[in-house]
Design a protein that fits this description.
The structure holds 2 protein chains of 2 kinds.
Chain A lengths: L1 H46 L1 E5 L5 E5 L3 H9 L3 H31 L5 H14 L3 H7 L8 H7 L10 H10 L3 H12 L1 H7 L1 H13 L2 H9 L4 H30 L4 H11 L4 H27 L7
Antiparallel strand pairs in A: 1-2
Helix pairs in contact in A: 1-14, 2-14, 3-10, 3-12, 4-10, 5-6, 10-12, 12-14, 13-14
Chain B lengths: L1 H54 L3 H4 L14 H9 L2 H32 L5 H13 L6 H9 L6 H6 L10 H8 L6 H13 L4 H8 L4 H12 L1 H17 L2 H6 L6 H12 L22 H36 L5
The chains are: A mainly alpha, B mainly alpha.
């Protein structure tokens, strides 16, 4: 008798808890079906079809196979160029953003007078940089990329932030132009880099705070220097978050509304009204992104250190 | 005794020197850090400072080389010009009506979903959670045309069509935003679900089980046990949702074709200032004579006034909640 109740009760409880689980995620499940899965499948279909919008608001599809994909890559003048340049930007920007945000988070980790305020200021880019502020500052007249450039050209006097002297110096030293661009680039675009690192800084910061202080104490007792402690403790403990941040940065730069490819895809859909082409372009872009992230994750996964 | 003291004094001297060296290093290190941090802070704050100062600057100050940041002649003219020509009150009202309920819906639904994923075992859970991660990775642009058409001819299993004979057009209404938010598919909601799930998983199970044993249902347990512990995370999510919703140009541009929200209002205003006079039409003539719209410097003032109007509510909100926010994000379950 007692054995029976013991075996039956957990079962019913388990089943009930299953139902509760579904109940809690039910809003998301509904959205998954109607707002995500169906449109995603439709998007695949659109990419392989010619889409005609009829006057009543409906649309007609006619299957054209891979034509949209071929056209996007070979016939269209702008798309392949934009695609390549945005991949180039990514390869260059993401490492700079990661190094910078790691550096800043290590600086911010220590307690110092006013540290709460300084952290508050470093959060500010999260508010300012989510598209609108940057766009508003930059899309005026000249196609400047950063607020700072816009500020300089609109009469502000901020020559300290331009590394003109440094550039001159490097040119005189005979350094090749490409290298100069790589070195000077991050300095000239420091505002853009800072404003894209907001979230990354705080992911790193949260990670740094979660490293147990006893590890540091032990290594200092053993006579480890700050340099050694950084490379033997801090850095290995941060490698999982390094991957998270790299992935986040890739997605963030690839899918931001200001991205040239995304803008082109948007205009292809809503000013050219070529929905099929726009969807095909989007899928090509997403595939590139997936390949990119696969490579990064593959390289990183062997070097990540999990402390458990 | 003598020998001992003789041996001790060089040692203590050495220790003293060591101490001074260490102190020197610390001061130097602190200085370098301070230079870096102050520099970065300046770079972040510089555009904000120029924006605020230009928003309140009179035209004559632009040509005065002795005026850099603090205007000599304060004026609200720029602001009133931007206010009128952006139709600010209308745009602000629309933005508030869209963003505030959306933030509330997003927070509640992402929280519930995150809790469901954190605490309950059900079939297909790991696959569904992988789909959550997938929604973070797939850009919303991928499904924008479908969403646009979906909300243009909105219907659930043909119910609306059966009742009224026509599926309603939800574009230019607030419904698309609310539907996306309530189902957890609005801006970066996958990330929110992920954060909530991580932080709920990090909470102790014991009190929750005790409440269950005492006969509280799952919702009751959630509300009275889990919710108070999650306040900091909720604050973080609310701020993120608010900021991203406020600055969003993607969804508002997609769904609001005629209705003016703050980003569109600013874009129209900006392109008017840039010389595209056809866009705003005759409405703008109000204070035209007072500003020389051929002058780039004056246009810069007016543009900054517009930016200031759009950003000011967010900046004020951030200033109030800043300290709380800094603490909450450091402790939030982003990592655990």
């Amino acid at each position: 008798m007692s054995v029976k109740t013991q075996t039956r009760k957990p079962l019913t409880l388990q089943k009930r808890r299953q139902l509760y689980g579904y109940a809690f995620i039910s809003p998301w499940l509904l959205g998954l079906v109607f707002i995500f899965a169906v449109p995603l499948v439709q998007s695949v279909i659109f990419a392989f079809s010619d889409v005609h919008i009829s006057g009543t608001g409906g649309y007609e599809l006619s299957f054209v196979g891979l034509k949209n994909f071929k056209d996007a890559l070979t016939y269209d003048e702008q798309y392949p160029q934009d695609l390549l340049s945005s991949i180039g930007d990514l390869v260059y920007n993401v490492p700079v953003i990661i190094v910078f945000s790691f550096f800043v988070s290590v600086l911010l980790k220590q307690k110092f007078p006013g540290s709460v305020w300084v952290k508050g200021i470093f959060f500010l880019p999260i508010i300012l940089s989510s598209g609108l502020f940057l766009q508003m500052q930059s899309n005026f007249g000249q196609s400047t990329t950063s607020t700072l450039d816009a500020a300089i050209s609109s009469g502000g006097n901020l020559s300290i932030l331009q590394s003109v002297n440094m550039e001159q110096y490097l040119i005189e030293m005979g350094v090749p132009d490409n290298f100069i661009a790589i070195i000077i680039g991050p300095i000239n675009r420091i505002y853009e880099i800072i404003s894209n690192s907001g979230i990354q800084i705080f992911i790193f910061l949260a990670g740094l705070n979660s490293i147990s202080p006893s590890l540091y104490e032990a290594s200092y007792v053993e006579g480890g220097t700050g340099w050694e402690v950084f490379w033997k403790i801090t850095f290995p403990m941060m490698t999982p978050l390094l991957l998270v941040n790299i992935i986040y940065s890739i997605i963030d730069t690839f899918t931001s509304v200001g991205n040239t490819v995304m803008q082109y895809v948007y205009s292809m859909a809503f000013t050219e009204m070529n929905f099929g082409m726009s969807n095909a372009m989007c899928w090509i872009y997403l595939l590139v992104l997936a390949v990119f992230m696969g490579i990064v994750a593959g390289i990183m996964s062997k070097r990540i250190f999990y402390y458990t | 005794m003598n020998t001992l003291q003789g041996a001790r004094s060089p040692l203590s001297k050495r220790m003293n020197r060591n101490k001074i060296e260490k102190k020197g290093k610390r001061v130097l290190g602190g200085l370098i850090k301070a230079v870096f941090l102050i520099g970065f802070c300046f770079i972040i704050l510089y555009p904000v400072i120029t924006m605020v100062s230009k928003a309140f600057m009179q035209q004559q100050d632009v040509y005065d080389n002795t005026v850099l940041w603090i205007p000599r002649h304060f004026t609200a003219d720029n602001l009133t010009f931007a206010f009128d020509n952006m139709h600010y009150s209308e745009a602000l009202r629309n933005t508030l009506l869209v963003v505030l309920p959306s933030v509330l819906l997003q927070t509640v639904s992402c929280m519930l979903v995150g809790y469901g994923f954190a605490r309950f075992e059900f079939k297909g859970k790991s696959i569904l959670f992988a789909v959550v991660i997938l929604t973070i990775l797939i850009p919303p642009q991928q499904i924008m045309t479908q969403l646009y058409l979906y909300f243009k001819n909105f219907d659930i299993f043909g119910i609306f069509k059966a009742i009224s004979g026509k599926s309603p057009n939800l574009l230019d209404s607030f419904w698309p935003f609310f539907i996306l938010s309530a189902t957890g598919f609005s801006i970066k909601n996958g990330l929110f679900i992920f954060i909530f799930r991580q932080s709920f998983r990090g909470m102790p199970k014991e009190t929750e089980e005790a409440a269950m044993v005492d006969g509280a249902g799952p919702l009751r347990t959630f509300l009275s046990i889990m919710l108070p512990g999650a306040i900091t995370v909720i604050a973080t999510i609310v701020l993120f949702a608010l900021v991203w919703g406020w600055n969003d140009t993607f969804y508002s541009g997609l769904f609001m074709r005629q209705t003016r929200m703050l980003p569109q209002a600013f874009e129209l205003y900006n392109s008017y200032l840039g010389g595209n006079k056809g866009l705003v039409g005759g409405e703008i003539a109000v204070q035209l004579s007072r500003f020389n719209l051929e002058d780039m410097q004056v246009i810069a003032l007016l543009r900054n006034a517009g930016v200031f109007l759009v950003m000011a509510p967010l900046l004020v909100f951030y200033m109030i909640t800043q300290r709380f926010f800094v603490e909450s994000i450091e402790r939030s379950g982003l990592v655990g």
